[in-house]
Predict the 3D structure of the following.
Amino acid sequence: MINNSDQQGDFGVFKWRLLLFDILFISAYFVCMSRGFFEIYIGKTSAYVVQIATWSLFLAILPLVLEVRWMKVNKSIYAYVTLGFFAFLSSLLTIVMSGFEYGYIYTSVTMYIAVLLLYGTSVRLKYIKSSNLLDPIMIITLVLVIVAFLQQLDIIDMPGDSLTEILRPSSITGSYLHYPIVMAILSIIFIQSASILRKKRYMLMSILCPISVFISFSRSGMMIIGLSLVFWFIMYLNTLPYKKKISVLQIGILLSFILLVIVIIEKNNFFISRFIGAFDTKSEGNDDRTAIWLNGINLLRYDSLLYGHYTGMYTNVTQNLIGVSSFVLESGFLQQIVSFGLMGTLAFYAIIFGVFLSIEKSCIWLKSVVLASVMQSFVYQSTEVFPFIVLISLLPVISSVINYDLSNRAKKIKVHISL
C-alpha cells in the first residue's frame, strides 16, 4: 500500500518532468523552425549546424526526462540497414566513377534523417502522453504566421524570401520554399487536433494555418493540403459501413463536381491559377522544373536499380553544408534514385511509410499528410528540408498525445456523470 506522502512525491516528480520537457521541447522546436532567424547572426551554414545539433541534443536527453519504453523491434530498422548499405556503396562508386569525393556528406545527412524518422516510430516515452505537446507547437506556429504576415506587409525583412509579382514569405524558416510546406503539415496537425479534441484554439489554428499556406502562393503547400484531403476522404470512407459509405461517396462526388465548376469559372483568379499550376507542366516555373526532371531521368542507367552514381552531386545539402557546388533535380524521389539507386530509394520511403503505420488509427488526418508528403516529394526536394522531416517524425507522438487527451477527457466526463 502506498501512503499519501509517496503519492505526493511521485506527483511532484511527474510535474517536474513535464515542466522540464515543455521548456526543452519549445526551445529545441523553435530552433528547428527558425534557421532564418539564426542565419541573420551566424550565417546559413552555421544555422544549419545549430538546428541539427540542438534537435539531436534534445532527442538524446529526452529519454532521461520522460523515461523511455522501447517498442518491439521496428521492421523499419531493416529498411534502415538496407538504406545504409546502398548509400555507402553508392558513395564509394560515385568517387570511383565520377571523382566526386563529397558524397559522404549527403549520405550522412540522409542516414541522420532516417534516424529521426525511426526515433518517432520506435520509442514511447512514459510521460509524453500527459504533456501539453500541441500548445508549444501552436505558439511557434503563431510566430511563423505573424512573421510571414509582417514580411508580406513589407514591415520586416527575413532571409530567404522571394519577391516576384508577389512576396512569398520565408518567415523564420530561412526559405520561402520551406515555410509553406511546414505550414501545410501544421495545418493538418491542427485540423486533426480540432476534429478530435474540439478545442477552440485548435479550431482557430486549423483555419489560420491553411489560409497562411494559400496566401503564401506556394503550389507545394497547396498540393500537400489538397492531397491530404483526398487521402483523408479515402481512408474515412474505409471506416464507414457500406450503406453510409455509398451516401458519403455520393456527397463527395457532388462536392468535387461543384469545386471543379468553380475552378473552371474562376480559372483566372490568381489563387486558383496558382493551385492549378501545380499540376500543369507548362505553367510558369513548372516548364523549367519539367526540363530539370527530364535531365534527372536521363541520368538514370540500367544499373541504377542497385546503386546511385551521383551521390551528393544533385542536392542542396552539399553546397549548404560545405560550400561545394552541386545541382538540384526539383524532386526528392529523383534525387534519391540518382544518389542511392532504386533499392536505396525504396528503403528510404519504407522508413517514411513506417511513420504512417505508427500513427494511431483514429488520426487519419495525420496518416493522410504522410502520404501527401510522399507524393509531394516527387515534385519537390522536400526530403532534405529539416523542419519538414522533424514534423513528419513527430506525427506518431502527436497522435498518441491527441488520443490520450481524448480518452482522459472521456474519463472525466464519465466520472462527472456518475457523481
